[in-house]
Design a protein that fits this description.
Blueprint (H helix, E strand, L loop, with lengths): L28 H7 L2 H22 L15 H4 E8 L9 E10 L5 E7 L5 E6 L3 E4 L4 E10 L13 E7 L4 E7 L2 H19 L19
């Protein structure tokens, strides 16, 4: 038949004296792995482990941060005063009284206290013997407050809802605060006011005329 020559094999390794690969695959990874030396294999395994660890670190969720600590309390919110009664004193002047209190701090850092006033103008107040004292959390501090009458003018002799003015300080703030007490403190404070100011507030009587012991005679 014309136009038909001899058939050549397509996988013949030799074409014009050279080798040609038709449709051949690249060497497989397993084939390459077997051709590596033991040292090269160990190096490759170590590099792979580092890569896996780095990938895992990126994929892990970030650690949750701890909740911030609650703010320190205001000293006026955690300090409590309780009236105990009159202090036992001797030879105290009629214009001065001594009153006993128990002071506690419920939470937070210690609170430093100073008594600065006692309800009304004309009264002075301070803690004795130490004007400034510190109360620790959970401890009860018993304190004596000395109240003196310095001016009777305008003072109500019957104190109702009497209170103490104090300064409170902890590591968060310094606050001015008034503690109001019940009827027992008001009654004891009223006794001091009456003792100091009753004679001062009394209206003087008419002055007698002439010398003492003499009599005026109307001779008509």
């Amino acid at each position: 038949m014309s136009g038909i020559g001899p058939v050549e094999s397509v996988d013949s390794p030799e074409v014009d004296g050279s080798y040609e690969v038709i449709g051949g695959d690249a060497p497989r990874l397993t084939d390459r792995w077997h051709t590596l030396s033991p040292r090269a294999r160990r190096t490759a395994l170590a590099a792979g482990a580092v890569a896996v660890a780095a990938t895992g670190a990126v994929l892990l969720p970030p650690r949750t941060r701890a909740d911030p600590a609650p703010p320190l309390p205001w000293p006026a919110n955690v300090t409590e005063w309780r009236y105990i009664g009159l202090a036992q004193t001797t030879d105290s002047p009629t214009t001065t009284g001594f009153f006993r209190f128990a002071v506690t701090v419920d939470s937070g850092p210690p609170v430093t206290v100073r008594v600065i006033g006692a309800a009304f103008d004309g009264l002075t107040a301070q803690a004795v013997p130490e004007p400034v004292f510190t109360v620790r959390v959970g401890a009860t501090h018993r304190v004596t407050v000395q109240i003196s009458v310095s001016d009777c003018s305008g003072l109500p002799l019957n104190a109702d809802l009497a209170f103490l003015d104090v300064t409170l300080r902890n590591t968060r703030a310094i606050q001015h605060h008034s503690f109001i007490f019940g009827s027992n403190y008001s009654k004891d404070l009223s006794q001091l006011l009456h003792r100091a100011c009753d004679t001062t507030n009394a209206r003087p009587g008419p002055r007698p005329s002439g010398s003492a012991g003499s009599q005026n005679v109307d001779r008509g």
